[in-house]
């Protein structure tokens, strides 16, 4: 009877390592500065465009300010935040024959590397998708209100942000050639499904998987 009582009261060690790691990936933002600037320039461009008439009557000043913000956003998202937040990078280059090639880099998964967090990945992709849609709304509102002087700026906003969206969707999907199928597949995974921690990898230049398209 005494032995049975001892067996019943034995301590059982529980391993919470996986739960802690999963909670870390879901909640922690590992690159707060990159996350901030990923949204700062594009949101600032939208806010400045909407409110520029309240702050200044100079069309040229507003035009240049918004265009600079869009340019800073394009460069930072293409070269910095995509690499840090989701481990992806893309660019376009012209070879000696004058042919254009899309180059995609994605960091390979490694057991020794901590994956990017789900919070960072969601912020990255939602910011990348939602802001171009807002500029498309601005395009139609500009047409319907006959404010054609802003049309060139709105088209520049759509072009710069859609270029990053296009490049990162292809990069995420491995450089698929059929953009309609790639986009549909990507949006279904990003918007309607919960991202898995293993889908997002730690950024860097080592161990990059390169695709040409």
From TrEMBL:
Name of the featured protein: Golgi apparatus membrane protein TVP23 homolog
Q: Which gene encodes it?
A: TVP23A
The keyword Membrane is assigned to this record = yes
Q: What is the lineage of its organism?
A: Eukaryota, Metazoa, Chordata, Craniata, Vertebrata
Q: Which InterPro entries match?
A: TVP23-like (IPR008564)
Provide the alphabetized UniProt keywords. Answer: Membrane, Transmembrane, Transmembrane helix
Q: Which GO terms describe its biological process?
A: protein secretion; vesicle-mediated transport
A GO cellular component term found in this entry reads: Golgi membrane
Location of this chain's protein in the cell: Membrane
Assigned protein family? Belongs to the TVP23 family.
Principal localisation: membrane
Q: Where are the transmembrane segments?
A: 33-50, 56-75, 123-144, 150-171
UniProt membrane topology term: Multi-pass membrane protein
